[in-house]
Structures are given as C-alpha cells and as structure tokens.
Amino acid sequence: MCAVNVGERLARFVAETQRVPEDAILQAKRAVLDTLGVALAGSREESARAVVDWLRDQGGRPEAAVLGRALRLPAAGAALANGIAAHALDFDDVSLSMRGHPSAPLLPAVLALGEAAGSSGRDLLTAFVLGFEVEAKLGRAIGAPHYALGWHATSTLGTLGAAAAGARLLRLDAGRTQMALGIAASLASGLQQNFGSMTKPLHAGWAARGGVVAAQLAARGFSADAEAIEGPSGFLRAMSGGAEPDLTPFDALGEPLEIVSPGVGVKLYPCCYAVHRSLDAVLALRTAHGIEPGDVAEVRVEVSRGGLMPLRAEPPATGLEGKFSLEYCLAAALIDGGVSLSSFSDEAVRRPAVREMMAKVKVGEGAEAAAFPIGGYAAVRVVLRDGTEYGTRVDVPRGDPSRPLAWEELAAKFRDCAGGVLSAEATEGSLDLVRRLEELDSVGRLTEALSTAEKQSRR
C-alpha cells in the first residue's frame, strides 16, 4: 500500500486553495483563448458534426452551450461535443509535464459546468488552473511508462484534471473532491492506436464528459475507493504497467503551478506537436535560401530518440492521417511554403506533387533521447539537385513556453480559426470577453457569444 494518499492530497489542494496568483490567471486566459479558437474551427469537422447530431437526438436539459452552434445540451453532452471539437484539428495546446494536450479535455468541462452552475469568469479560470495542475502532476508521476504502454495521456489524465476542475466549480469539499477523482480514475481511457482517426478527438471529448460526470456524481454523494489513485490496483500503478510511481511531484503541488512553469506550449501548425520542430527547421531553410520545390533532391531529418513514437510510418491516405506523418508535413511545407488548416484535407494529402516530395524525405532517430516526443530536437538537411546542402537544427519551436506567442499573435490565430464559424462582430466580441474573463460575473456571457452568433445557418 502506498504511504502517501495521493487522491486525498490532490483533493485537498483543489478544494482548499483560496486563490491562485495573477500570473496563473493570465496563462489560463491565454490557454482559454487558444482552445476556444481551435474548438470553433474544429466544430465543423466530420467527427464533431457526427457527435453533435447524435447528442441532438438524445435530447435532455439545455444546461450548456455547444460552441459555434445555436444548440444547448446537458452539461456532460456539451462537454463531450466541445471536447471533440477542441481536439479535432490537433491544433490545441500541449504540456510537457502532462505529456499531452491539457486544455482540450479541461476547458470544455469547466465551460459546461461553469455555465450550468452560474460560475463567474474568475471561478472558471481558477478551476482551470487547478485542473491543469492535477493533469500535469499526474503526468510527472507516470507519464513516461504510461505513454510507452500506448495510453493517450490527453484522455486518461485529462479525465482526472477535468474532474478536479469540475469539483472546484461545484464547490465540493475535499472529501467529495477525492471521490470525484476516484470516479474519474475508473472512467479514464484512450489508446494511441486510434491516432489519425476520428476516435482521437473523441478521447478529449470523452475525458471532458467523464470529468463532468465524475464531479456531478460526487456532488450527489456517489462514492469511490479512497485509494483509487495510489492503491495497489489503483490508477497510478494500473496505468503504468505496475511500475512503482514517482510520488515526489505530489509533494510540490502549486510550487510552482505547472501552468506558469514550465507552462503551456501553443501550436502554430494544426498537426502533431512532434512534427513542429522539423517544420520550423524546413521552413527556415526554405525562406533563408529561397529553396524551390523543384530544386530538392532529398530531405534528411533526424529527431530525438523516441521522437517518432506518436507518428505514422505509413504514407497517409487521409487528412487526419497526414497530421501524424512527418514526411507529409515537410513535403507540404516545401511545396506550399507552410502548413495550415487547408493542408490537412484528404485532397491535399493525395496531391501527386506532394507524394513525389514525400518520397524524398528520409526520417530517422538520433542517439540523443527526447524527454518525450513533445521534447527533444529536429535536425533537417535539404540537399538540392546541384549538390548544395543546407541544414539547421531546432530545439525549441515557436509557441513553446520559452518562446511564447504575444497576445496579439494568439488573437490572430483565434480570428483565423473563428472566422469560418462566427461573424466578424461576434469574433471580436468574444476576443474582448476572453481578454477580461476574470472580470465577468457569468461564464454564460462568453458561451452565449460563442454559440449563437453563427456566421450563417448551419446544421
């Protein structure tokens, strides 16, 4: 039996923290803005549409808004719909500590519960920060063996983070918060084998839904085992293949808060984060040396040992698969001068010129190990037909916490993502609401702006 009751320690931290620092509130607002944008764009993806249609058929009490649609659902259903949308494009943020995507499961849960409970903007941001802390500390404890076994941390750890944040919004005491975490531990799931399919974004939505369900059940007195997290058959051991978990991260809850340090990584490209360093490198070479696609004879890529783990080795047949193909992403970047949302349509992936360029991209892992596929480096060398070679190495991609985007850069990404869903007026109004989110007396003011002012009539 574990000497430290991790569930109790996490629960007390979530329930009894009086106030989070303003620097954490700022970082949470940045994450909220980024995630809302990618969720709006993702709401038009086939996976999100299919689930919204299914949820609409289920009906239920209209407690919370579905982003980008004039539709309200029970809180758990809204969390599911918005969580899938937030992860549908793989354009959402990342956490090295968590070893996954922290905000896609977390924000939809707090939006839905916050709206249903009449929470303020500061309440939402505080819950977001505390849920993020739970996700990240669990990642520090078991992240490496957990990921190596094929689990998707965004879904598994995200379920517990969403439950913690939900418990905070529902003002549960430490005992019931511990029960919420225990319930969530048995709801957590998500397999890497489904990367590149619609089920990957379902992971984030199901985690958000699971967090809402766990918090709501705990609020009604539903119980879980007191050692569901750290017990001999509990979450930490089961999710790491029986390995002894590292419990030291739970000795430093909030010291510092993970959302502040190491912080949140924001994606500049709507594809797997393990590709971003290579994309930064090849685009830098293309710009610096005026490289034209027809001049390229070969592209040699070396990434950290372990850096190819989340990627597909097979040539992609669909846009979804293309997000996890390093060869495709680099080929598209060389041909088009960058990658954007339009790069990941089925038609874009199947272009003959892209397939020809993909064959020139040779990928391998070096001896230098990555802290995780989110960490590490990418060394890219482009060989031209005349024998000229240009190379560079990228260790830290733009958008990394150590190379953060300015607020206006985040706003530009939000406008680009929201532009196909909201009117220009609603887009700017939503931006203003997020900018002063901690001052809002009701989360509903924000969700209303994001859900009822559609650019045109949609299903």
Molecular structure report:
- The protein has 18 helices and six strands.
- The termini are far apart.
- The strands form two sheets. It has a four-stranded mixed sheet with strand order 4-3-5-6, with helices on one face. A two-stranded antiparallel ribbon has the order 1-2.
- It folds into two domains: 246 residues, 2-methylcitrate dehydratase PrpD, CATH 1.10.4100.10; 122 residues, 2-Layer Sandwich (60s Ribosomal Protein L30, Chain: A).
- The chain is an alpha+beta fold.
- The model has no long low-confidence stretch (mean pLDDT 94).
- The chain is globular.
What's the number of helices?
A: 18
Number of strands: 6
Mean pLDDT: 94
The tally of structural domains comes to 2
The N- to C-terminal Cα distance equals 52 Å
Entry keywords:
459 residues, 60s Ribosomal Protein L30, Chain: A, alpha+beta, 2-methylcitrate dehydratase PrpD, 2 domains, two-stranded antiparallel ribbon
